[in-house]
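Troubleshooting log. The previous structure file for this entry was overwritten by mistake, so regenerating from the original sequence record. Sequence copied from the archived sheet and checked twice against the printout by T.R.
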Amino acid sequence: MPTNLKADIAANEILLSWGPPAGLSKHQVSYEVEWKKITDSQWTKAVTREHKYLLKNLAPETDYDMKVSAYEKILDPNEPVEVKQEEEKKKGDHTFI
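Regenerated output below.
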């Protein structure tokens, strides 16, 4: 689980930042960031290797659910970062804001 999760909130974006999971700081870790409006059922998902992610184009005066998951994985440095929409389908080791 990512550590020290923080959210810096601006008008229509949120910068999420976190530390590496305990015990995995020397390993390659990828992070899955998911977010949705509280009233929505679909999550938007992004995968990153960074310890931060900027959620952009958020609706003003709107509450969001967010979660960050860590996965230990050998990463290809040329592997693209992906962003996609999907139904909520799993529960696991997440940090919620």
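Confidence is low (pLDDT under 50) at residues 85-97. Archived copy saved in two places this time.
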